Amino acid sequence: MFKKVLIVNRGEIAVRIIKACQELGIKTVAIYSDVDKNTPHVLLADETIPLGDPTPIESYLNIPKIIEIAEEAGAEAIHPGYGFLAENPDFAETCSKRGITFIGPKAEVIGLMGDKIAAKKTMEKAGVPVIPGYHGNKQDVDSLVKEGEEIGFPLLVKAAAGGGGKGMRIVDNIDSLAEAIESAKRESKSSFGDDTVFLEKYLDKPRHIEFQILADHHGNTIHLFERECSIQRRHQKIIEETPSPVMNPKLREKMGEAAIRAAEAVGYTNAGTIEFMVDGKLNFYFMEMNTRLQVEHPITEMTTGVDLVKWQLKIASGQKLTLKQKDLIQRGHAIECRIYAEDPSNGFLPSVGTLKKVEEPSGPNIRVDSGISPNLKITPYYDPLLSKLVVLAENREEAIQKMIWALSHYIVLGVTTNISFLKKVLAHEEFKRGNITTHFIDTYFKEYLQMKHGLPLDAIIALAVYDAMHLRKQEVVRYKEADPHSPWRYVGRWRVGGEIDVH
Amino acid sequence: MFKKVLIVNRGEIAVRIIKACQELGIKTVAIYSDVDKNTPHVLLADETIPLGDPTPIESYLNIPKIIEIAEEAGAEAIHPGYGFLAENPDFAETCSKRGITFIGPKAEVIGLMGDKIAAKKTMEKAGVPVIPGYHGNKQDVDSLVKEGEEIGFPLLVKAAAGGGGKGMRIVDNIDSLAEAIESAKRESKSSFGDDTVFLEKYLDKPRHIEFQILADHHGNTIHLFERECSIQRRHQKIIEETPSPVMNPKLREKMGEAAIRAAEAVGYTNAGTIEFMVDGKLNFYFMEMNTRLQVEHPITEMTTGVDLVKWQLKIASGQKLTLKQKDLIQRGHAIECRIYAEDPSNGFLPSVGTLKKVEEPSGPNIRVDSGISPNLKITPYYDPLLSKLVVLAENREEAIQKMIWALSHYIVLGVTTNISFLKKVLAHEEFKRGNITTHFIDTYFKEYLQMKHGLPLDAIIALAVYDAMHLRKQEVVRYKEADPHSPWRYVGRWRVGGEIDVH
Amino acid sequence: MFINYEHENSVYQVGIEKRNNKFFITYDNTEYQAEAEEIKPGYLKIKIGDKLIKAVVTEGEKEKYVFIDGEIFRVKPIPLTGRRMSTKREEGDLRSPISGRVTKVSIEEGNKVKKDDILVVIEAMKMEYLIRAPYNGVVKKIYVKEEDQIEIGEQTVEIAKED
Amino acid sequence: MFINYEHENSVYQVGIEKRNNKFFITYDNTEYQAEAEEIKPGYLKIKIGDKLIKAVVTEGEKEKYVFIDGEIFRVKPIPLTGRRMSTKREEGDLRSPISGRVTKVSIEEGNKVKKDDILVVIEAMKMEYLIRAPYNGVVKKIYVKEEDQIEIGEQTVEIAKED
Fold first, then answer.
1. In chain C, where does the domain assigned CATH 3.30.700.30 lie?
2. Residue of A36, A41, A43 for testing the chain D interface, max D β-carbons within 10 Å
3. Does ipTM come in above 0.95?
4. What is the mean pLDDT of residues B459-488?
5. Which of A246, A239, A242, A210 is nearest to A404 (CA)?
6. Does domain C100-161 match CATH 2.40.160.20?
7. Residue A215: which pLDDT band, with cuts at 50, 70 and 90?
8. pTM of the model
């Protein structure tokens, strides 16, 4: 096993990886940009090295600087987490050239799967079903519009290098196709430095269901069952669960086999995920492979009892996978909610600010993978994921109840979060029935998101009591001197103008 | 299911029960004595009712007051937790008479099992092996000494009404038997209002292994495997784990069957535990039955995926046990450490004070059942259990590693705790090998507990830096004015007199 | 004393007095008598008759947050001496919905634009936000240039309406 | 400035000066230069050369606690102006090891006692603690009576040694 590992990430995932390393007796090196100086991952690591400028490209994406740090610190291996450099083949390649173990698959595999077009072609060859679409080289807007017309609508425009909804557009008709392609290309260029896009048939009642893979360097590949990730906003998962409410043993076996076939077709090693789209008739199609740890890996860990991050470390250090497919069992039902600093009623726009109070729920089978603490500044530099709340229960109904309880006991004050919104989704009758698709939020929550919910009386009372306890003397005096005849004398609620119109 | 439940307990177990109720949509009523006004269980409950005087007999043991509270609050059921009134047949009986569901077995069963002598006789009749001993009515010291001589030494003097090491004495020879009997009687009288004691053969290489039982009101009884609870100090468990390192499938089956037989012999309902002693040759003997939830129930929950407290509520409300013996599987290895406010190097004496900082470890498969928070006063009124730290891992070795990591990240400042001592036990070679008996602490830690460990340089530096930052001006001035020629000028370490001799 | 809280464009006015360790809260023509304790900074236990309110209140830079009954509300206290603050957007006032970086300015002052034309692109947290023309018109003023940092609520462009 | 900490009956003397945001710590004839930051109350990050010390320090009523490297240490700061405080128990000085309630006093002043005789029984947290005679002797003074509350370190009985 490694003696020292450098974690090239921040936030909750860096914390998760550091803990796994420390439990295995591995020393950890954390890196941090100027704005992350006292964040949880920095306080937890055994050694910490500053990166300076918080701009991603100057910090967590800065390959030369990171390699230099790894060498100076004497780290034998690098764990990239997810995001940042996790799926960058150049980085994996550079590590390998400098004699540092990259904890993940080989650079070629990352490169192959990172090119969504090449990935689909490879999977088609391996006999894994793929979605009809255009993955060709004609990248001018006119040609793409023509290809799109052939595939038919609705249609998906997708950045070849993309992920997490970036550079992705759904197009309902030919009129808006050109503009969607241009915008996707622009976003992809700016995010990934590559503006190649491809087009895909957009499925009916689509679900996003993925399979977790573990593969060692001795020819053993297993899957750890599915994760249902259909609940998304802006094409970004926000609630994941396992088992999928739509899954049955036969389909699970078929999809599991396809996932293993997909991984074996590219000589995959370490942890990875095969993402499938499943339509209303339970046909499934390969969508893409994520050649890294997933954000939502904890739900698999809770239902299988397997520690995926520890296995990543063991596999990377050359150990054999001792878990056998036939011994693996899913038990119970797990749900993950992603806690974001964002405002659901304002288009899910990220919210920045300083966290004033943080109190995370706890209890049996409640897991919080968290990257936050009181007084932390949430900046616009990085992804606004604050933490992941994960629960396990004996069945789906109890898991939903537990998650709602846990969300109701999650105190994060200082930025706007999606906690309340997540509760509303979980409590929705159609969610409870398991009738979910990737359109769930758009279908059922358009109105909710524009509704005003009002300030309850108890909140008004609490605020008033708090202010009465805390307002400084001069403020109180000023209030007391207010003209008793002014219109402000009226005590109650009134409405300001109209809505805020964020066009 | 009940609409409202009164929790007749405090601390971590009250918190645990309230959470289970709230997840099931049950409203909770907490009671609290004057010193518990702002403790976690009070802050979490839906309704809270004061008990006044903190003396146990005036508060958490005050049956008339508690029944009155239950009726006024409209609670349909009472959960007693463990300790206090959990095994008091009069209380269970009173609840039943007043139409309140007591969440536990019937009063008669509690009474029968609470009388250790009658319990043994019942078990012998049911064909469950028991330890040789004297459980008779001759309770004068002379008769007991005579009976003890017959059984032979070493010998155990045990309060009939006892539990948790209270009113228990090990006697090595005839000379100290009389005094041990007297002292046990006195302690039992004061703790339980009953001074009946019995005598038992003290086993060779004894292990304490217990089986968890669940039984409904429809004739279904299952066991949820064993818990190894041999690591004890002052006859009180401090580390529990499952599976037991000594267990094999055959023995597990035999003991599990005996446990179910024992439960069925008394018409047991709800959650309970059959405690066995297992000797060096893997003979097992019924020791006693705990007719309530155990402190160490979480390790069973983590390895079986079953929520015992939720099942207690379901069973008490009349629901059928849907768990089948054949479907239950132990998975992984779980360990619990009890975090006590006590000083291991001073005879494990309880430590009182105010908790200044509390930061509990967290991470995948780490569970903290906690009853504490910053600024809480630890008083001498109640048991000094602060919390229970529980971990689950794929195997025993990783579970031990994880527990040591978690203990090393458990910050409780303001009272002395056993955290450091627990780590030393877990790291002991014989513990790692699973060679544990109930004598483990006495055998391997006598010396350790008397050793001085010294203050490391880093701690000295941290203290000095802290003081340099925080000492008030006049203090600093006073130091600065100190005579540079005084003997205090010498900077380093020196020893005061000898040891503190706590005789 | 009277305090005003703004929440979702509504203003809540409440009166509060402290006398003899009791709080008298007036809202919507009803008076509530409360006993209250701050058990640790921001953590309140408020008793009104038999009812217990547990809340956590904290102050951000410009707003207050209150956690109550599992929900979090953000309010802005409004100074009593101030005037009504309109939070309605004026037509043609295109403020940034987010703090981020201006990655593209597609227009120049004097340009004619059509409804829904993209005017400015702002990137924040790896996402792209498009500021579009709310109606046909002429670009009157541009407040930002490419690569500018922009704060939430800052104006980007002014468009003079035309038909 | 010099500070003394008592831990397990040893006294640690340390010198510390703050100059230009650096701390100069002298202990055991070695000087350490440190940079330090208190990231939140009691949470210290201390840098000495390449080495980083992370510690949590807090003050109890009479003692200080420091959490470092997974271990917790309790120390008593000793005022510089004070005299050496002996924490050694004098023979025949039988202080209570615990705060609790005196449930039994088995002796009277003037009684003869033998080594290991039980003198006083104290109950705390449902456990019983026995105070025994450390040697043969005569009961000189009894400081407690049954049902008294007793604090940790409080004297119970004095025994005059006899052989």
1. 2-77
2. A43
3. no
4. 62
5. A239
6. no
7. very high
8. 0.83
